[in-house]
Amino acid sequence: MSTAEKKQADQETIDEGVDLALIQLCNVLGVSTEAVNWDAASETFEGDVQSVICSILRAKYGEYWSADDGLESARLEAANARIAELELLINSPETDDWLTGARLEAAHQVERYGAEHDAGKTAWDWFWLIGYLAQKAAAAQTAGDSSKAKHHTISTAAALLNWHRHLGGIDQRMRPGIDPVERGIVS
């Protein structure tokens, strides 16, 4: 075998190995090999391999994926998963652990009822909200619904926590009541 023939045979072996590796990458990512553009037209062997790898990743992650944003996409995906996990935690009532439930409910109230447009809340707005929530707890207990009563004691505690935070200037996003202009307090 001549040197040129040996070099050609070695290159074919390398090509077959690279093809096998790229097919295995497709298998690992769950990408159909038919969805991949195998016709890379770069000037170098390395460029061809990189082009096919990018084609595989586009087939997996969408046409707007690029080699520049692969890591950023993974970070964004992880951040979105964490946000979904925290939203589920905040938006799932806890009734067994009162203190944990009050903290989670306080966060839920801020998320759900926070009102930047409702300025000028008075102590009486907080008083009426807390009385209203406590009354709901009492009504649920009277009706024999201890689960709902427990939830309302927690929502009352959460409102008190939000009022406490409001008084301390820690967090003023949760404000019960309506706009003072609408109430006629401010013109």
What descriptive keywords fit this protein?
187 residues; mainly alpha; 7 helices; rod-shaped
Description:
The termini are far apart. The mean pLDDT is about 80. The chain has 2 domains: about 5-65; about 95-185, no CATH class. The chain has 7 helices and no strands. Helix 1 (about 5-30) packs parallel to helix 2 (about 45-60), helix 4 crosses helix 6 (about 145-165) and helix 5 (about 125-140) runs antiparallel to helix 6. It is about 70% helix and about 0% strand. It has about 190 residues and is mainly α.
Largest sheet: none
> How many strand elements?
0
Overall radius of gyration: 31 Å
What is the domain tally? 2
| Unreliable runs | none
Order of helices and strands: HHHHHHH
Strand content bin: under 5%
Categorize the overall geometry.
rod-shaped
Q: Count every helix, treating DSSP H or I runs of 4 or more residues as helices.
A: 7
Helix content: 55-70%
Strand pairing plus helix content: what structural class?
mainly alpha
- Calculate the mean pLDDT score and round it: 78
Measured distance between first and last alpha carbons = 98 Å
Topology:
Blueprint: H1 3-29, H2 45-61, H3 70-90, H4 98-113, H5 123-142, H6 146-167, H7 180-183
Helix pairs in contact: 1-2, 4-6, 5-6
Outline of this structure?
This protein is mainly α and 187 residues long.
